[in-house]
């Protein structure tokens, strides 16, 4: 006669109530909470990119939305629109770079904890 299936045998939960899978699941849940917290911090952050020593600034949030643009009147020359366009592009590029740095700072420590030795998860 065959024995009934015992799922705890798969996860090592049968001995003294110790269940290594439960610990792994708890770690995964903690990691998920930290990841969500970091994502919320990034979304709420204000990031400022600039060009021309601050003559043009672009403000945005961590989600990619541009919330403000400031242009010093000194760079508004109807005969030289190209310079203003270049400064605006430079400020947007700087904003993007700073946004990536912010995400790396917030998410970097979490990425190191992913996969904790599990096969196929980068550890």
Write down the overall mean pLDDT. Answer: 81
Name the overall outline.
rod-shaped
Individual helix count: 3
User: What can be said about the biggest beta sheet?
Assistant: 3 strands, antiparallel
Beta fraction: 5-15%
- Do you know the CATH architecture of the domain at 49-99? 2-Layer Sandwich
What top-tier CATH class of the domain at 49-99 fits best?
A: Alpha Beta
CATH topology-level name of the domain at 49-99: Ybab, Chain: A
Sequence of strands across the biggest β-sheet: 1-2-3
Ranges where pLDDT stays below 50 over 5 or more residues in a row are 116-123
Total DSSP E strands: 3
- Assign the structural class, choosing from mainly alpha, mainly beta, alpha/beta, alpha+beta, or little secondary structure: alpha+beta
Radius of gyration: 25 Å
Secondary-structure element pattern, one letter each: HHEEEH
CATH homologous superfamily (4th level) name of the domain at 49-99: Nucleoid-associated protein YbaB-like domain
Q: End-to-end distance, in Å?
A: 42 Å
Summarize the amount of helix as a percent range. 40-55%
Subunit structure: Homodimer.
Pfam families: YbaB_DNA_bd
Region (Disordered): 1-21, 103-123
Function: Binds to DNA and alters its conformation. May be involved in regulation of gene expression, nucleoid organization and DNA protection.
